[in-house]
Amino acid sequence: MTRDRDKLSINVAKLYYRSEYSQQRIAEELGISRPSVSRLLQYAKDKGYVKIQIMDPVEDMSNMEQMLVEKYNLHEVRIASSTINDENEIKKYIGIKAAEYLDSIVQDGDMIGVGWGTTLYEMSCSLLPKALKGSQIVQLEGGVTHSKWRNYAKDILENFSNNYSTIAQYLPLPVVFGSREVKEMVDQDRHIKRVLEMGSHANIAVFGVGTVRPNALFFRLGYTDQEEQTRIQQIAVGDICSRFFDADGRICNKELDARTVGITLDELRNKEHSIMIAGGEAKVPAIRAALKGHYANVFITDQFTAKELLKD
Questions:
Q1: Residue 53: pLDDT over 80
Q2: Domain range for residue 15?
Q3: Which residues on neighbouring strands pair with residue 204, listed in sequence order?
Q4: Which of 34, 142, 269, 284 could share a disulfide with 27, CB 3.0–4.6 Å?
């Protein structure tokens, strides 16, 4: 008798959950009453023949965010839900999520330092308008280039300053000089020194992560020759604000680092809000190394990248 009821309840469950029959139709098909169908469905669930699993993408994101916080000792993580695992699409969704996060923390009197790059540009286009009092936007790294490629440095700074109705402080220099001596001499210029100090004292820093792929924006901008590019690619996995680091997150080319104009990675560690926005399969090694280096305390990414970072 019990076996017959078990079999009947399983058949009812299959018709209801798999074939999507209504309870009334099941009753008609099997020649039983509708209340009997309802009781058999409940019996199937009670016996464990039917298990209902609710997939909540919001809750899933929240779980991954907390796991990343714990794994990499971060203050906060925000994960954007990208429709597809495509680098350009991911940048758009990360940009929107980063803009929303910044809107939630920014307030009057904040000094906001910004890097450059395509992901940061997407964020700057998605900022939520808010007029700030006593605040300024400052460029964290030199942005002048004579390449045909755009680094969006000027666009990003303008978008931020216009959005927050405040003043932008430009760093009108290339990000890398040919020699350490020239770079150090330029650093002593009164205006340049002031902008660099503002970047150092900014309580909020927003920046992306670069790779060492041949098509990486830093290389396309022509800041290094082929020989130096090859040396970088042999030891580095990525960069933040054009400062290159190895797989453990350590600066790996001190000679190049000494010629680089802008905020140092050690200074990023001490920010109240050090916000790293990055995603995409190709950037996973660089992002992982940056997180190991603890250069960010807030990380904004996408669900595909988050899953990769949680694998090891």
A1: no
A2: 1-51
A3: 112, 273
A4: 34
